Amino acid sequence: MRLVSTSPKIALLEEYALVARALSAPARLMLLEQLAQGERGVEALAEKTGLTLANCSQHLQQLRRAALVTSRREGKAVIYRLTDAKTLDLMDLLRVVAERNLAQVDQILRGLSDGQDAPEPITREDLAKRLAEGSVTVLDVRPADEFAAGHIPGARNTTLAELERHLSTLDPSTEIVAYCRGPYCVYAHQAVTALRKHGFNARRLEGGLPEWREDGRKVLVNGD
Predict the structure, then answer these.
(1) Dist. CA 106–CA 25, nearest whole Å
(2) Can you give the pTM of this predicted structure?
(3) Catalytic: 185?
(4) Catalytic residue, candidates 32, 180, 191, 192
């Protein structure tokens, strides 16, 4: 049990700092990114993030102490999920502050675009309108299992490794929008750079599948 200060203000700040400390490890941000796609067991999370089972479990415990994730039992397995969808806003705010104020972040992002200024991302509202008009091609560049678990209606699935062999199936006269996991995923940045190198008009979606879902927009699951 945590010690609580006699000062109400300090006591509150201690609780806020608990959340901040839980976000202080890259591994935990990766776990939150994965759980934003949907609930997962510890083994699946360890495989997705490249962590050992022991390290993965330890990081999940830190996230649970800060109430950022919760869990349930399914037989012998422990299944985790995000406690609150507002965590997505917190993750995105971290990204915004870092991009505005850390020069190294800008250098890394420019590196993903081969040193060029990346085109402005399309908003989810605008993409929904373009999809209704049929005037856009949408690429989901997440792994196939994540696409199967939920994707934007009309999206085509291709990983970065498969992108080259799908180029001939894309219409060069139609804008292409790529999306992936959310604020920390770089697959969409990389896909847009590769597509633009081949002369396609491409840009990425603002946010990813979790934000699209949280807006209340329709998400398809393979088998629907």
Answers:
(1) 20
(2) 0.90
(3) no
(4) 180
